[in-house]
């Protein structure tokens, strides 16, 4: 079976399948990176004064997002990406099967 990723010399169906796979992969990456950007830049920098009115463990919430929140969200997003890309790969017949 030809892999959708390596479909350069394959049939038109393989090329369409590969294009759909990469389109879905890039869409997923764009969504997850947008979430990470919103949390790290938005909450940690732009909204820091508003968030500092609240606290977690004695630390201002804006400071917490800048120091810990964006890192924790990034790690969670890695696990979300791994789970979602696994489903996408199964749908297109690529990757670990």
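Sequence proposed for the structure above (97 residues):
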């Amino acid at each position: 079976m030809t892999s959708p990723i390596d479909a350069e010399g394959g049939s038109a169906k393989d090329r369409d399948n590969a294009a759909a796979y990469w389109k879905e992969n890039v869409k997923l990456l764009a969504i997850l990176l947008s979430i990470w950007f919103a949390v790290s830049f938005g909450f940690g920098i732009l909204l820091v004064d508003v968030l500092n009115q609240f606290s977690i463990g004695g630390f201002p919430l804006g400071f917490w997002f800048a120091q810990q929140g964006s890192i924790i969200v990034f790690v969670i997003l890695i696990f979300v990406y791994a789970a979602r890309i696994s489903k996408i790969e199964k749908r297109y017949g690529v990757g670990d099967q």
